[in-house]
Amino acid sequence: MDTNKLPRPDEFRHTMEVQLRFNDIDILGHMNNTRYFSLYDTGKARYFETVHGVEDWRKVEAVIANINCTYVAPIFFGEKISVGTRCLWLGEKSFCLQQILFDDKGQVRSVCETVMVSFDPAAKHSVVLPDHWRDAFTSYETSEIKRR
Questions:
Q1: How many CB atoms lie within 10 A of CB 68?
Q2: For the chain, which domains are there?
Q3: Tens digit of each residue's pLDDT (9 = 90 or more) over 44-81
Q4: Which one of 48, 58, 88, 130 has the minimum C-beta count within 10 Å?
């Protein structure tokens, strides 16, 4: 990822501060790379609660198909870190969430893109993204969501 074209925190309507724990830190003194995904998962969960009103996680109609994380700068214990989440694009059966981890000065430390697929757990296959999900993304986001 071109670090000159990083997304900015002000481009994300949904942001929240996340808590770093001492056990998130590795021997080099910065956050272990595997812990980034835990923070991103927390951001996704709160985003879905806000955008879709998810209350029962057994009824979430999407699964992760692909996730990519770019580490821009290390995160150290004691820093104030927030996660921003937004929907980048909507497809027929899938959508992409973009997330960032950033500090209290607005410096982006990491960027993550997650492709999620609408899924029917009973039938065990992908399905067309429900209109209520599509409508929720479109009405919540302030910038235009691309169609694929």
A1: 10
A2: 3-142 (3.10.129.10)
A3: 999 999 998 876 766 678 899 999 999 999 999 999 99
A4: 58
